[in-house]
Amino acid sequence: MAMWPEDPATWRPGIALPCRRRTLGWPRLRNSVRPAMSPSDATATVPQLAVAVALPVPLPRTFDYAVPPEFEPRVAPGHRVEAPFGSRRLHGIVLRRFPIAESELPPERLRPLLAAPDDEPLLPPPVLTLCRFCARYYHNPIGEVLAAAVPAAIRRRKRRKAPPALGVPLATVASPAPVTLTTGQREALAAIEADLAASRFQVSLLQGVTGSGKTEVYLRAIATTLAAGRSALLLVPEIALTPQTLARIRARFPDAAVLHSQQSQRERGDNWERVRRGAARVVVGPRSAVFAPLERLGLVIVDEEHEPSYKQDSAPRYHARDLAIVRAREARCPVVLGSATPSLESWHNARTGRYRRLLLTERPGAAVLPAVEVVDLHEETRAVKGFPFISRRLERALRACLQRGEQAILFLNRRGFSTFLQCRACHEVLTCPRCDLALTYHQSRARAVCHGCERADPPPTRCSACGIGAVHYFGFGTERIEQELALRFPGVRCCRLDSDALADGTDLAETLERFRSGEAQLLVGTQMIARGLDFPNVTVVGVISADTALNLPDFRAAERTFQLLSQVTGRAGRAGLPGLSIIQTFSPGHPAIARAVAHDTDGFIEQELRHRERLGYPPFGRLARIVTSGRRERSTLRHAESLTAALRAHAETAQVLGPAPCPISKLKDRHRFMTLIKAPTRAALEPLLQAFDHAPRPPAGVRCALEIDPVSML
Questions:
Q1: Does 620 have pLDDT greater than 50?
Q2: How far is CA 309 from CA 238, 374, 500, in A?
Q3: How far apart are CA 633 and CA 18, in angstroms?
Q4: Where exactly does CATH 3.40.1440.60 map onto the chain?
Q5: CA 245 to CA 532: how far, in whole Å?
Q6: pTM of the entire structure?
Q7: Alpha-carbon span 57 to 92, nearest angstrom
């Protein structure tokens, strides 16, 4: 993550990655060397040019091909081409064009390109630069990065004219909404507009309390950017979870293009083409939108910059927030990182002067931050002689809220009905046979579900371990809370929003509209209801259990808990009505909870930073994580041990820890072991990354995945 002296705003590599680097764990491909030219490929015309092409294969290198003379006008860097790869035909992107004599192979061994269908480059130079950085910094194969940057429909189809723009006059698009800005909003907007006028790269951390109007600052800054003839990029954590923000953007900028993976391939391809041709100058999307082919980029905004969903955990791995900073630096334009609860890395960068900090300390109009109360579940459990899903204090607040005709949100970051199944005789907790995870009972599906591999089976009636004891259900999730509300508040309409509800056919926009219109009075959900939602009639927020993530084996657990609590409690009292948030917890004295109750973001961050500095964790050190996985536990562990020993031989100021079983030690039938590398700087980390690149290939069935700047230790 972008943080300390070598964050992506300033980092440039001192060591070039060798072209011989192998990606561990991938099978050896037929064409794993420079593609040789077969006799049948020979042509009468001798090519004079060659190109280096990045292909969508897990190999960290490019491949040289001869350019037939008729293709020469259409093979500049950024062009899409079709090339032979073994027995396959693959689409790739040209990265370099050079005389054929400069290739590592003699001309007669180079196979010719099969097609060069485009008159113009598919990717503009700034996006190519960003992809190269992503491959180099995160040690990704360049072909996989480029494949992630271009929608599949664009890579494969013949070029088609992009859909026309909606034709809305710029004066209409850029006109500001009739909203009176607060003093903080005006000052923040003025600072950003000064950077826009000077075409100056500047990272601004826009830190505003929940409901302080960060989105309005974004919209006005985008309008100023468009009026100057430039384009804007707005990244959001997850497009499906920010419907209200998206609606405001579309209302202000009707031509805005939305890019995300939930669109059909055709829709996403059409929007991407609109952006490439300049018909859409505002792009909104999640992490993959950082690669949007915008020309004349004038402004980059990362909303909720602290969200872990900006990190891509599968190949190619990258952090979109940090790539957004790199892209803004190359475009010489300002970048705004917005959050009510900034990441420790961004806050530290602001404190040390690398970023500029812009503060929004008040809500617009008469709205104020909600009062926050804590219910100690130790005391509540003793008083009611059992575990209360909804405490007496929360129930009283909900009844008063409903009697006033207002609405309430209840938050629990656990889906399902019961969170584990246990034998009463031998006390065995039933786990997934494929994963090291307890099964969760989902009443809506009448299934015991693994949340790691999503395996779902009818719940057993007898223990599979002892065969004697009956299985009982323990714990609680959002389904159980929904049932409890129906029992305590009969006749009150309740909506539930979690990934299970969406998978079962619940329409997100329809559900949110039902709640916004007042058709439903209660909303229960997981973290998807904690951000991006603004309901003026919500005056009570209840956190059913604040402890769900607090004690996870992850050094970011306290930070995540504080952020989540601050975000969800901030849903109350956003339109002038007094708000109340009630947090139920077994750990009322924990700093993450106590500081969230006090709305003390800076106090929590300063306390957490002191703890991180003592341990050498980010932002005071650099991390890399290697997860070795395989179906056979012993062979997987042996390779993890040999790899870790090889890395220790290159450690000077860095520490190499492990290997140890991952907190989730088995996932989808694969045993997982983690090696953690801690280094004071990126330069100290680099020799170990190079050693990993040149490590021996793992045995069959074993994979090694390298993650730079990991955000999760699970």
A1: yes
A2: 7, 29, 18
A3: 32
A4: 39-150
A5: 7
A6: 0.89
A7: 10
